[in-house]
Specification:
This protein is mainly alpha-helical. It is built from ten helices and four strands.
Amino acid sequence: MADSGPLIGLGKIGRLELLRQLARSVVIPGPVWREVVEAGGGRVEAEEVRRLFSADVVEPEASLVDAYRLFLGAGEASALALAAGRPNALLLMDDARARRIAAAQGFRCLGSIGLLLRAKKHGYLVAIGPEIQALRRCGIFLGDEIVAQVLRAAEEDGRKAEDGD
């Protein structure tokens, strides 16, 4: 289940294909599709999402979306609503509040740079530092602390990753 933010960010840096490479299946909630693709105004990342994921759009149950909408935006709420029916789902979302709510509901989450880290560990990327810099150049906010943690885990900070990272 992917939220809008990671799709937009990964699309801006040309890394949407990593979703296909790393996931058994990709699900794009209908409201996320409408936000990214239909309201995307022909932006490059919107067209990439359309090209790669047009067959993966699923409409969530409205009553579940409405319940999550009390706390979250439409994209996050629809991703959580779809995850509710898929016990092994992994949510791709960057919004901190949405991730806290997802964790409280027992859902597994991964953010954009966590996906980049997995891609490096699976050999799809040589380094994630340049990808993180590209995201930041595109205006994607990434906190310094999480970037430092991920670069340590990727062994790109000049030190060996600590056990458990």
